[in-house]
Amino acid sequence: MQIASDRHEYPAHWEADVVLRDGGTARIRPITVDDADRLVSFYEQVSDESKYYRFFAPYPRLSAKDVHRFTHHDFVDRVGLAATVGGEFIATVRYDRIGADGTPASAPADEAEVAFLVQDAHQGRGVASALLEHIAAVARERGIRRFAAEVLPANTKMIKVFTDAGYTQKRSFEDGVVRLEFDLEPTDRSLAVQRAREQRAEGRSVRRLLAPGSVAVVGAGRAPGGVGRSVLDNIRDAGYAGRLYAVNGAFPEDLKELDGVPAHRSVRDIDGPVDLAVVAVPAEHVPQVVTECGEHGVQGLVVISAGYAESGPEGRERQRELVRHARAYGMRIIGPNAFGVINTAEQVRLNASLAPQMPRPGRIGLFAQSGAIGIALLSRLHRRGGGVTGVTGVSTFVSSGNRADVSGNDVIQYWYDDPETDVVLMYLESIGNPRKFTRLARRTAAAKPLVVVQGAGSAPQGHAVRATRLPHATVSALLRQAGVIRVDTITELVDAGLLLARQPLPAGPRVAILGNSESLGLLTYDACLAEGLRPQRPLDLTTEASAADFHTALLHALEEDSCDAVVVTAIPAIGETSPGDAELAEALRSAAQTVPGKPVLVVHVELGGLAQALSAAASTAPQTGSSTPSGARPRPSQMLPPTTPATPAASAPAESRLIPAYPAAERAVRALAEAVNYAQWRREAAEPGRVPEYEDIDEKGAAEQIDGLLARGQGLTLGTEETHQLLGRYGIDVRRAVPAFTPDDAVRAADGIGYPVALKATAPHLRHRADLGGVRLDLADEEQLRRAYAELTELFGEPEELRPVVQAMAPRGVDTIVRAVIDPAAGAVVSFGLAGPASQLLGDMAHRLVPVTDREAASLVRSIRTAPLLFGWRGSTPVDTPALEELLLRVSRLVDDHPEVVAVTLEPVVVAPHGLSVLGASVRLAPPPARDDLGPRTLPVY
Fold first, then answer.
1. What is the pTM of this model?
2. Is-contact 588 659, C-beta < 8 A?
């Protein structure tokens, strides 16, 4: 436990684990009085040149006064942070608050001097950049808005740390010293820099686990069988290209080899580096193994061992300690309770998993939290017959088990620019950080398809992450908005993956259907209609069709401008002209290669041979032409420019594309529909739109009003007048509803508003329920109003129960709902739907993350199933959807500008042919949840 250095309590929430540029980890924490010896030891290992750069003069050692100064902080005006590995300092940073004259000061002074010192052995790892992010966050928390730093001109590395950070800054030169001043408020550029560094660091941390130069299997037994020995045998039998070691403390001292693999009693006994340790020992022995690995410099761990969070409270604490222990040594963990990892790249060939057979090499990256699901996915992708048939291949596979450290987010970071992976398939039991996942998914999906099965599970046990309060369906909708191809089953996952890995993306929804079975063609036609595609009438080639007939028909369909994709249906046929499987497959491949820009799928019935023939290849890896030897895997540099992320298989050379075969029309068409929707998203993502500026928005006035209202308490639902005033500051006018506790009150209100009016009961059980009779519309005069008032009180009770109000009549239109909420995990979300049963009973609501762009607002309005009611369905008058889109954009701006607005509901919003009317509104304020995506880079806390 850390001891406070001065008058303030130790700020434990400043502690954080970070991933450095090379993929290793470090611990960042405040420096305290306990750190005197660590500080002295650290300083002794810093070169004289680095000391000179820090103090502008030779400074060989720290005095006792220096040590006291650098370890005693008040955590407000004087703060020091250290980056540690193995408990020892590798870098420090410190700020001291100063006044306008540059002397030490206290609040309200908002400037501080900052200085760094990084151990020479750790320079170039991005330690200073990570420390700058964290010390800046600390300073902002303590009311400091600007840093100043004085740097010698020769200290170019440190100058680069400041200038590359992306903050708004000024630079001056005086008395031989460069003075840098920069604001600490995050900017678009600083966030972009931070996220680019995050991607590189996290991607490299996974690469260290998936492409190690040496592997030690800890817990490999002498006798065949057992988890550790099975993993060792699987690595060896796969032809692992690196150095492999067997480790077991029970080995006899004279045992030097185990089936040809060097054997050792401890990782410490291995001569040379070990990049990855696969741990398969009982949970109670894992801490000792972690210590030995950390002291030997192992870079990462795959923990197969069970007995952690899945086993109960004691196991959860054991898991937390495992993560803390490993990160203290700079190691990342896959697991515990993991199935393992696989990398089929020729230069790696790693099968550090419990899968007895290495999958075929290919272009699909595969992630599963569950080992059982991972086995099922590998099996489906591997087998040739049954289900989705034919050969496909895997680039890398990760089964994360309890997901204590490395998660799906980390692996996405790796796959984003992995040249060996064209398509990503993920089975996620839960999404621990939806905000980050959607951000990473959006960027990845712009480069390559990302297909996800999302389970309904909770966050893995032992994780200290915010749980989302959004419904499962809402999270799914947000994933689709981010470009994720969201499917419901692992069968659909593989179906979509096969198509996306093998075929180009369709340019639109128009589908040609041809084949030798009229009934199968009609089934395919109906399936296309059900999926929202635009099929052409099927072309029946009859059962007498030859391979040449198929070739000619497919070639003609592909050449037609009215076709975006082709589905070929085939059934077994008997006759002299009936083609064999290999002949038909070659005919289809030949035609598809002649016109390579459109996807081709085959629906087959009991044609295992055809499916195999269509997929006849040892690998799905693209071939790049005559420059690559036959059968050889092309190098990444042959496939894409070195500065761009990997190109999807959809744009790979035509000769590499294999035609996927499906045993049912519905499955083929569903996969094609997902590809069509994804291609449309890609086109739209290229032009994401903009967030409009509205001159009539009073952002400052709204902020002052919100601050004043929150001064009353931590959270509150605004009253009617306050709601109208706040919304009005953002150009959202709510029609006034006047309470009427007596008939006379109602008449006076109507006289003030002007006839015709509406009389409504606003009691909770009657609100927005016109179907129950609690609303009377188009009351033209006092007589009708008094009669309606009497009817309401007779039907539903006394006015005190009904809470009647009088409101001016709005133009006729379509009743809709607009909502916005701030979810602690996913962020701010705007939702839209039609009022009444469509949204309440059928859940027909669409959702978008804030801030919403103009293109997203238009898409949001059109995303609900009942959207035709807005656009003139069955001859009705279309309503003013541009006004509706503007309302959505204004609500989005409100919650984006003021995160204290945690909930907004506008119901009903009557959208007329010209304009709209907001008839009811509620707003809730509360202190906003912390935005971890705006803070410094950190790994999840345990």
1. 0.83
2. yes
